[in-house]
Amino acid sequence: MPLGKRALQAGLFGCIGLLLIAGAGAAQAQTAGIERTTIENTPILARGDQMTISGIAAGQPDAVYVWVFGTNYRSLSNRVGVEADGTYRYVLERAVTEGFAPGRYFAVVQHPMIDGVQDVSVVSGTTIRVPGSTPVDLARLQAPEAAAALIAALNSPNSDDTYTMISFMVEDPWIRVDNVTTV
């Protein structure tokens, strides 16, 4: 039985998101997506430090896909398993970040949504494609443009995948020592 807004505490209820598709004639329940993505510690990474990208993926997907674009680094469509509680964790080890050039980097976490299919994927080498569109070679693009091309593909009407994007800076490590006075 429906309840008024003032009587909600008296009843049991739940929430789902609805995706309304024009011309489809029906509403489709959308209970998947990325609830949260974080970079542990700080969005500034000292070259050679470990970095972890973690978050919560709703809708119980088997995996999410992590893409990283940087000044001299590309890592495309890394399959990352999702735990039973919806959490995922992707680690860039010290040996990897040691080779990062200073600059801005972009990480995109792609969620395959309800159908579990990764709509935007690598078809060969560094070329991505979403069904029904022209392939795009990410190797020919600078990091910001490559991330933007991936986002454009994910926003295509031919993809139901969702994503979250975060950026971080990589800097050369340094240590600052204040003047030491003798007593």
Offer a concise description of the structure.
By secondary structure, this protein is mainly beta. It is built from two helices and 13 strands, in the order ββββββββαββββαβ.
Explain what the structure shows.
About 12% of the residues have low confidence. This protein starts with 16 loop residues before the first strand and ends in a 12-residue tail after the last strand. The chain is built from 2 helices and 13 strands. It is 9% helix and 41% strand. The strands form 4 sheets. It has a 5-stranded mixed β-sheet, covered by helices on one side. Strands 3-5-8 form a 3-stranded antiparallel β-sheet. It is mainly β and 183 residues long. It has one domain: Immunoglobulin-like, CATH 2.60.40.
Specify the CATH class. Answer: Mainly Beta
Using the alpha-carbon principal axes, give the shape. globular
Helix content: under 10%
Number of strands: 13
Low-confidence stretches: 10-31
Question: In this structure, how is the largest beta sheet organized?
Answer: 5 strands, mixed
Q: What radius of gyration results from the CA coordinates? A: 21 Å
Here the CATH topology equals: Immunoglobulin-like
What number of structural domains do the residues give?
Answer: 1
Terminal CA distance reads 80 Å
Give the overall average pLDDT.
Answer: 83
What structural category characterises the helix and strand content?
mainly beta
Say which CATH homologous superfamily is assigned. Answer: Macroglobulin (MG2) domain
Order of H and E elements? EEEEEEEEHEEEEHE
